[in-house]
UniProtKB/TrEMBL annotation:
Organism (species): Propionibacterium freudenreichii subsp. shermanii (strain ATCC 9614 / DSM 4902 / CIP 103027 / NCIMB 8099 / CIRM-BIA1)
CDD domains the record matches: ASKHA_NBD_AcK_PK
Annotated InterPro entries: Ac/propionate_kinase, Aliphatic_acid_kin_short-chain, Aliphatic_acid_kinase_CS, ATPase_NBD
Family statement: Belongs to the acetokinase family.
Record's subcellular location: Cytoplasm
Biological process terms in GO annotation: acetate metabolic process; acetyl-CoA biosynthetic process
A molecular function GO annotation: magnesium ion binding
Cited function: Catalyzes the formation of acetyl phosphate from acetate and ATP. Can also catalyze the reverse reaction.
Top-rank taxon, per record: Bacteria
Protein name: Acetate kinase
Chain sites annotated for binding Mg(2+): 9, 382
Length: 396
């Protein structure tokens, strides 16, 4: 009999969920709740067995939202009585959580202490945990942190060159995010290239709306591009990625902006949106093809930053064996992959253009046989990874 795990991803105004059978690697149901806390109506969309249902109740908070989700399961199935655990995507674990953990009062108290590091994300996660525990109290609830994989980073990679006492007092360091994806994707690579994980020097490019890149040696991360917050590193849909830290103070003075205003500008109005007016890479590509000046510049900035990181990480690794693309842009944009690989001839990268264009859901190679670095496309699946990690934790 299936032993499904309910995977929950609670954001400030949304909840994504999947009911997963981790052994069969199948999704039994999935759905999305939007506009939680909105004065108007919320939206709950539930999919199972190839059918989809939508309801639009008022959703004052996460408890009411999860009650609506559970009603969807009651009305349309599958039943939740066999659920063995609930896995919660917890964003920021600071340096406190290096692995998934069964949630108890102490874990929630620690997550509460970490709220200043992730003021938008962690409160929603805690509220979601409390709501789910009240509705499904008889099974273990597990927290899986986006930062956990990167707690293994070496000190020289996670330390910022600022005053040591200031850093210590405020826990200012690189934490890294998208860890579940970087770990899952890097673990798919050995089977494709026929080399053990322990022998591989990898770079993984997670290019979605949020984007990050990591260097992984023998299965362990040695650097990653996101930092104290998910704002650092690559150019993203709406986030700036790396800028001169001096821009912050300069913009405060020249525009008279508050800290909150600058934070919001860099997180929500920058990246591809700020450069081109579009956040979706499909729109940027279409505008680029038409020769739109802002799109051409924006795309070149995006690629330049990515190539810069790949070169730096190749140097840190000493030898680069594999370069893997994942997430929305990485999995779907042959255009971005080609632009990146064309600039990596210096590293011995040779793309197989036909393979790059072919669509294949399974992890696959897109480099030519003579390429010194094997280039891959691997679909990420953070929900499945979370369900498997939860099953593993509870079996141990
Ligand atoms: P996130 O989980 O960070 O919200 P995803 O990994 O789902 O993001 O990626 C979403 C992004 O993927 C979209 O905003 C879009 O830019 C990009 N994307 C999806 N399909 C394509 C495609 N066919 N070509 C180019 N970009 C695509």
């Amino acid at each position: 009999m299936a032993k499904p795990i309910l995977v929950l991803n609670c954001g400030s105004s949304s909840i994504k969920y999947q009911l997963i059978d981790p052994d069969e690697e199948t999704v039994l149901a999935k759905g999305l709740v939007e506009r939680i806390g909105d004065a108007g109506n919320g939206i709950v969309t539930h999919e199972t067995d190839g059918q989809e249902w939508t309801i639009t109740p008022q959703l004052h908070n996460h408890t009411v939202a999860l009650q609506a989700v559970f009603k969807m399961f009651d009305d349309h199935g599958p039943g939740l009585k066999n659920v063995t655990a609930v896995a919660h995507r917890a964003v920021h674990g600071g340096d406190r959580f290096a692995a998934p953990v069964v949630i108890d009062d102490e874990v929630i108290a620690t997550m509460q202490e970490l709220v200043p590091l992730a003021p938008l994300h962690n409160p929603a996660v805690i509220e979601g945990i409390r709501a789910a525990q009240s509705l499904l109290g008889n099974v273990p609830h597990v927290a899986i942190f986006d930062t956990a994989f990167f707690t293994q980073l070496p000190e020289e990679a996670y330390t910022y060159a600022i005053n040591r006492d200031l850093a210590k007092r405020n826990a200012i360091r690189k934490y890294g995010f998208h860890g579940t994806s970087h770990q899952y994707v890097s673990q798919q690579v050995p089977a494709v290239v026929g080399t053990d994980l322990g022998e591989l020097n990898q770079i993984v490019c997670h290019l979605g709306n949020g984007a990050s890149i990591s260097a992984i040696k023998g299965g362990k991360p040695i650097d990653t591009s996101m930092g104290l917050t998910p704002l650092a590193g690559l150019v993203m849909g709406t986030r700036s990625g790396d800028i001169d830290p001096g821009v912050f103070a300069y913009a405060a003075r020249s525009e008279g902006w508050s800290t909150e205003r600058i934070d919001s500008e860099l997180n929500k109005n920058s990246g591809m949106l700020g450069l081109t007016g579009d956040t979706d890479m499909r729109d940027v590509e279409a505008a680029f093809e038409k020769g739109d000046e802002a799109a051409v510049t924006g795309m070149n900035v995006y690629i330049h930053r990515l190539v810069f990181y790949i070169g730096g990480y190749a140097a840190l690794l000493g030898r680069l064996d594999t370069l893997t693309f994942t997430a929305g842009v990485g999995e779907n944009s042959s255009f971005v992959r080609k632009m990146v690989c064309d600039r990596l001839v210096g590293l011995g990268v040779v793309l197989d253009e036909a393979k790059n264009e072919a669509r294949d859901k399974a992890p696959h190679l897109i480099s030519a046989p003579e390429s010194k670095v094997k280039v891959l496309v691997v679909r990420t699946n953070e929900e499945l990874a979370m369900a498997k990690q939860t099953e593993h934790l509870l079996a141990s």
